[in-house]
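lol ok so funny story. i was supposed to be doing the assay writeup but got distracted and ended up predicting the structure for this chain instead. priorities right. anyway since i did it might as well share w the group, maybe its usefull for someone
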Amino acid sequence: MDFEAYLKKDTYTATEVIKLLRITRFTLYKYIYTNKLKAYKVGKKYLIFKKDLIDFLKASNNSNTYATTKTKHSLTKV
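and the output, tada:
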């Protein structure tokens, strides 16, 4: 499935999110278990709604920016 087809979907499986974000299965489940990424278990599989994935990406982007800024400041103080 190409990227444009992914954008049209409303829900994603764990495997699809792993491919989209280029992360490991372990990392995805860590995000789910720590409630950083909202997912719904249906049978043996997890489903992630597009809105929840977008919210996760926005939150991740904000926290990465903060971490980088914090590191730069601590390096300049030393």
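Residues 50-77 form the longest helix (28 residues). The helical segments are 3-8, 14-21, 25-33, 50-77.
back to the writeup now i swear
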